[in-house]
Amino acid sequence: MTRTVAPSVTCPARMPAMPRRILVVGGGAREHALAWRLAGEHGVESVLVAPGNDAIATVPRVTCVPARPSHGPEIAALAAREDVDLAVVGPEAPLAAGVADALRAAGVPTFGPSAAAARIETSKAFCREVADAAGIRMARGAAFTGAAEARALAAELARDGRGVVVKADGLMAGKGVFVCDDAAEAAAAVGGLLARTTDDEGPVVVVEERLSGREASVIAVCDGTVALPLPAARDHKRIGDGDTGPNTGGMGAYAPIPDLDDAAVARIVREFHMPALAELARRGTPFVGALYAGLMLTADGPVLLEFNARFGDPEVQVLLPLIATPLAPVLLAAALGRLDRAAVGASPAPGAAAGPAAPAGPAAIVADDAAAVGIVLASDGYPEAPVGGDEIHGLDAATAAGALLFHAGTERGADGAWRTKGGRAITVVGVGPELATARDVAERAAARISFRGLRRRHDIAAPAEVPA
Fold first, then answer.
1. H or E segment at 420?
2. What is the pLDDT of residues 55-81, one digit of tens each?
3. What is 108-151 written as a DSSP string?
4. 51 — alpha (psi -120 to 50), left (phi > 0) or beta?
5. Distance CA 137, CA 130 (A)
6. What's the predicted TM-score (pTM) here?
7. Residue 86 is part of a domain; what is its CATH number?
8. Section 180-203 average pLDDT
9. pLDDT tens digits along 393-406
10. Residue 175: pLDDT band by 50, 70, 90 thresholds?
11. Strand boundaries in 230-385, DSSP class E
12. pLDDT at position 429, please?
């Protein structure tokens, strides 16, 4: 069965042609999932990944190309030389470096925002500025360059006993957020961040109220004007079970989430994504790419925690196996600014059975009536001081257990053995008709993989963690 996630605006028309040759920029588990998905779609002839990784290189119809992912001229030259029809920029660092700008300047249809539009992620102070101008509900807080003012607000916010959140203004690979129980912890976090950053370019630390509720990720494909949402997902950022320990880049995710149905997702897009798109366009920096709203679902409704300027990792690893709509033409339509004229139908994901096509009508992304759970396996010492070089065992057994494996920090030696490279190594994804089944597949598969110092959570989508 399939279902429509949420409608877009009017004017159904023919989808732009399926891109034959696609370039994916990046080399992590997110890019592994994107390459797997795009290469498996009918009509796509080949997918190039720059630089990719050893596991991505094993995907049929995928070729990894050595290249510096954050070097715009090099990536643009590669795209021109290979005559690609679409470029998809995965990680935040290349977006911040202006790789999407370089690709567009070379005439390559590109899914990924300009460096100016990507500031909505690369600067949390800018995100707050856009949200305020657009009337988007966000956690109360402010950005600072000095410690005294930041600590003063932290002390004020801490008086109600709910704690304080301190964030680095710039990119920190998911590890620049500190959830503090009191003003003293917040003051220490402020001091630590200011000690390793400078204020040469403006605010460097953001202090916000700590909100209560469950987090949710709503990611929409955007063409500067229109936003087409994927199903809502839930990431788990803390390193330990029960949301304990420091924040990481993400230790697991599941989708869909029971506390955000399709109607709620559509409402979030209207209240969060669309105002942000309008404000960025008003500033002359239209957003083309994946706009990720990180939300807290409070008792008083959703509140924005942050916007990201790309597909989430590990969220995209659990979302792409559920999407019935052909992804490649949707991304091309967004890159060309044509989502409002795209009639998006349903098509099976790689390896899935064919489902019914979506009826003609406004553009929408269609998802299978299924669920996916992803468990991240990280290297010894992650996130503080990850180490690599440890041999990985049980990958074939995990695949035989029915899981999808998306690699990030791994490499394959000349002896054929897989080893860790440090950081998050593999996302193990289970898919099933419901969350419990998907979780069982992911857990059984993850249990078959081992390496020295392996760090993982055991409560991703556990019954106690999933709202009824």
1. strand 418-420
2. 999 999 999 999 999 999 999 999 999
3. --EES--TTTTHHHH-HHHHHHHHHHHT--B-SEEEESSHHHHH
4. alpha
5. 11
6. 0.90
7. 3.40.50.20
8. 77
9. 999 999 999 999 99
10. low
11. 234-235, 238-240, 244-247, 252-255, 288-298, 301-308, 364-368, 371-378
12. 98
Answer yes or no: do 325 and 419 share one domain: no
Q: Does residue 318 share a domain with residue 422? A: no
- In tens, the pLDDT along 35-58 reads 999 999 999 999 999 999 999 999
Tell me the pLDDT band of 269, cut-offs 50, 70 and 90: very high
pLDDT above 70 as % of the chain = 89
Which distant-in-sequence residues (6+ apart) come within 8 Å of 192 by Cβ? none
- Same domain, residue pair 426 and 326: no
User: Residues 172-182: what's their mean pLDDT?
Assistant: 77
- Of 145, 194, 147, 140, the closest CA to residue 163 belongs to 140
Do 234 and 321 reside in the same domain of the chain?
Answer: yes
Q: Domain ends where: 322, 339, 365? A: 365
Helix axis angle, 29-39 relative to 327-335, nearest 10°?
110
Q: Are 331 and 111 in contact (CB under 8 A)?
A: yes
Judged on CB neighbours under 10 Å (0-12, 13-18, 19+), 423 is buried
* CA–CA gap between residue 259 and residue 298 (Å, rounded): 11
For residues 176 and 125, what is the distance between their CA atoms, to the nearest angstrom? 14
Q: Give the model's pLDDT for residue 360.
A: 33
- Name the one residue in this structure whose structure tokens are 């028309």: 13
How far CA 293 is from CA of 30, 171, 218, 275, 337, in Å, comes to 17, 16, 5, 12, 21
Q: Nearest 5°: CA angle at 189, between 184 and 192?
A: 125
